[in-house]
Amino acid sequence: MVAWSSGSLLNLAQGKFGRFDENAVKWLAAVGTSYGAIAVKSDSPYKTLDDLVAALKKDPSKVVIGSGGTVGSQDWMQTALIAKAAGINPRDLRYVALEGGGEIATALLGGHIQVGSTDISDSMPHIQSGNMRILAVFSEKRLDEPEMKDIPTAKEQGYDIVWPVVRGFYLGPKVSDEEYAWWKQSFDKMLASEDFAKLRDQRELFPFAMTGAELDGYVKKQVADYKTLAREFGLIQ
Which segments of the protein form a coiled coil according to its record (predicted)? Predict the structure, then answer.
């Protein structure tokens, strides 16, 4: 059994696993999700996503954006979608590749970057301390958590950007149908339990329970959608 995330699917879409594609394994279960987000320091002049887009339109080289991973990563794709909304080439962004949420927060709070393309869960301690603000979370609707309910989505601000960061598990291709069915049944039972819901909440994940054929269809659609984006942004042919 191997853990996967939406980042794994994005890498599959870009051919980063060589000859192995989305059909090479048996997709077992998705167990939760977080969502991408755009963060700024609390004293940033950018108060809304419109403010950021306006600044990018004026001069993208003046806005330093940091995120986890290099060009083609999930966080980079989030910035590319904002660039697309601003009508500019994502390659014109002033982008700094960092090592995940911790480095993004450090660079942002230290004034080394002006905008962080990140994950909502990674940002919450700094939001609650008053040091950072979220311009937009990339969820379909506002998140139903007391500390997140006032954070606007990109969609409600007029930007059709949704980026879930799903976590799950898959099995190898040689696992028998009988073994797969046993694991699926076990995950179905676990995902429906209150104990699991508590563990998921402790890890600041949101409900996203899917197994078996339904998950297989979801994964393959996501990979296809990511391939479309990757081609659009010049990441693959």
Answer: none
Tell me, rounded to whole angstroms, the distance of Cα 68 from its chain centroid: 11
Q: Which CATH number fits domain 2-33+163-233: 3.40.190.150, 2.60.40.200, 3.30.70.100, 2.30.42.60?
A: 3.40.190.150
CA distances from 60 to 56, 82, 92, 179 (A): 4, 11, 7, 52
The letter for the amino acid at 122 is D
Question: Residue 53 contacts by C-beta under 8 Å, 6 or more apart in sequence?
Answer: 82, 85, 86, 159
Does domain 35-157 bear CATH number 3.40.190.10? yes
- Structural domain spans, the chain: 2-33+163-233, 35-157
126 exposure class (CB count in 10 Å sphere: 0-12, 13-18, 19+): buried
Domains 2-33+163-233 and 35-157 share a fold: yes
Using CA atoms, how far apart are residues 154 and 116, in angstroms rounded to an integer? Answer: 15
The predicted model scores a pTM of: 0.89
Helix 49-58, helix 74-86: angle, nearest 10: 70
pLDDT tens, position by position, 169-188? 999 999 999 999 999 999 99
